[in-house]
Amino acid sequence: MKTCPAITIVAALFTALTLTTQPAAGAVIIFNNLGAGSFAGSFGVSNSQSSAQSFSTTSSGFILSEVTLRLWNQNGTSGNFELQVWDALGASGRPGAQVGSAIYTGLAENLGSESASLLTVSGLNFTLVPDTTYYMVAAGTSLADIPDDFGPQPGTLYWDATNVRNSDAYDTSNSGASWNGPYSQNLYTEITAVPEPSTYALLLMAGAGWLLWKRRKASL
Questions:
Q1: Does an H or E element contain 112, and which?
Q2: pLDDT, tens digit, for every residue of 178-206?
Q3: Where are the extended beta strands (E) located within 3-156?
Q4: Strand, helix or coil for residue 214
Q5: Strands across the sheet containing 50-56
Q6: What is the rounded distance in angstroms from the CA atom of residue 111 to the CA atom of residue 108?
Q7: Which residue of 50, 126, 146, 198 is most buried, as measured by CB atoms within 10 A?
Q8: What is the β-pairing status of strands 186-187 and 157-162?
Q9: Please, is 73 exposed, middle or buried when counting C-beta atoms within 10 Å of its C-beta (0-12, 13-18, 19+)?
Q10: Cβ-count burial of 23 within 10 angstroms (0-12 exposed, 13-18 middle, 19+ buried)?
Q11: 3-state secondary structure of 204
């Protein structure tokens, strides 16, 4: 028994669309300056101080899947910190507001203790809008004070910076009420994402529609 070509195409399309609901392979790096330039100091991250590095998407939809930062803990700070995604709707393109919930909550004591130590967070599932600028923000939430002969000092983490600027970096000392910058440095960051499943689905639907039209035209 012969199978109708149109049925074969539709079945193939259905199978392909089903596959797009699975975790996508072919992750792409949409921002990476981990190997750029020379070390140019560090930005602090504490309960009142946050630091932000901008990155942008292309015309395709993406799902943020992995983040790597040169974030480290010099003085044995303990407690929680967060990685957040902010929009760029503040004044002059500054960070405006946090988008959704934090993408990661971690313990300061699990970070490396030396400059250039890397924090990599994978298994993320955060939707990024096409053609949009965002900020990756590191913020302390419950970092414990550090004992000192002159009195307790705020628990602080450090996010290394490069002397190469190809995007915008800011920091704030009032929990995001206002941001300072942009600075001549950028914060060492890598952002990895996978194409949004709907992107694949639209391409497959368009291709299947064209094949059906071509088959129909040939039969006439």
A1: none
A2: 999 999 999 999 999 999 875 444 445 55
A3: 28-32, 39-45, 50-56, 62-69, 71-72, 80-87, 104-107, 119-121, 126-128, 133-140
A4: helix
A5: 104-107, 80-87, 133-140, 50-56, 169-172
A6: 6
A7: 50
A8: antiparallel
A9: buried
A10: exposed
A11: helix
